[in-house]
Amino acid sequence: MNIYFAVIITSLIISWLLGVTSDFLNARAMRPAPPREFRDVFDTDTYRQSQEYTRASMKFSSLTDSFNTAVILIVILFGGFNLLDQIIRSLGLSTLSTGLIYIGALGLISGTMSLPFEAYHTFVLEKKFGFNTTSLTTFVTDRIKGLFLTGLIGGILVAAILLFLREAGGYAWLYCWGFAVAVSLGLTYVAPTWILPIFNKFTPLEKGELRLALETYADSAGFELSGIFVMDGSKRSTKSNAFFTGFGKRRRIALFDTLIKEMTVDEIVAVLAHEVGHAKLGHIKKRMFTGILKTGAIFYLMSLFLDSRPLFDAFGMEQTSIYAGLVFFVLLYTPLSLILSVISNRISRTHEYEADAFAATTTEYPDSMISALKKLSASNLSNLTPHPLTVWLGYSHPPVLDRIRALKSHRK
């Protein structure tokens, strides 16, 4: 048996089984009543809704994963990748154009198949539980904008990678690595002013008690902000969030308008303090450095497999090509990707605890962070008792109950 075929098929099935098992155990881990720490924000109806939302989300996730896995397996087993390749090759275009069309066609097919699931999630599942505020116009224009940006930026990146791999010999992976990192850092730099405003409106936070409190805290923590903005998150959902964008002197914080409506000034300051903690404790730099190393490792590994005829045989390909090799390596990389994801999530959860501790220490009032987490959990109908396997597989943040219990240790 072709070893690549065996690895790819096995890893796809194992990944699917892990997801199904995780959802099953997660459902069994639910409790009939909320933990005592949440009884002040979760009444009977809210807690019942949170469990119904969790179950509905898991069923939807399982259905989506099952569909995607089945499609990939069918395409592999029945030679779909080779069929598409032969159709595009028949156009008689250049190797670069053929490669871009091949990868673009796969992306477009994948996006088209996922569109009904996205629509159902937005207009049925999220609407049922009172989260969705997205209009059909916004939904459609978001996808069009996303498709345009993906085609533009992704096209440039893929074209450069194909050219490097074809022309740069044994050191091609180094050129690919450097270019990919440069694009990634460039996007991070321009995103706050050029990309994010394409999808959302960012308005400077008006002067007042909240802005003064946030600026006072940032100054006390020795943290420079280029701006504090309010994002119209309510345009798409009632859920709340806050995040940093950019880096260096272009670093700014964005607060969802829904967050500002739901929380007190002290709670929002605590949320800012948590995000500042990530920066001051070096989490952002560590994440960026790790991502750069990971990208380099991926390109190096990719260079080892692109010329492997058995890899192409696993997909029933009549002819080898660099562009198809890129696609096949992504599937071959599945088991390693899963392992690295678990490790990355474990590190991320540790960082979240550290950022919570930073917020509790620098604000000198951990109860603000605790109450902020409680409100977020209630308004977002979070699952309060996830199963350890679910956390291990996919949680980049610790369960909120664990975070609250850790924060309580910082009370004076």
TrEMBL record:
Q: Which cofactor does it need?
A: Zn(2+)
Q: Which CDD domains match?
A: M48A_Zmpste24p_like (cd07343)
Query: Ranges for the Peptidase M48 domain?
Result: 204-409
Cofactor binding, per record: Binds 1 zinc ion per subunit.
All copies of domain CAAX prenyl protease 1 N-terminal, residue ranges: 28-201
Which residue ranges does UniProt annotate as crossing the membrane? 6-26, 67-88, 100-125, 146-165, 171-191, 288-306, 322-343
Q: Which UniProt keywords apply?
A: Hydrolase, Membrane, Metal-binding, Metalloprotease, Protease, Transmembrane, Transmembrane helix, Zinc
PANTHER family registered for this protein in UniProt = CAAX PRENYL PROTEASE 1 (PTHR10120)
Family designation: Belongs to the peptidase M48 family.
Give the protein's recorded name.
Answer: Peptidase M48
Organism expressing this protein natively: Pseudodesulfovibrio nedwellii
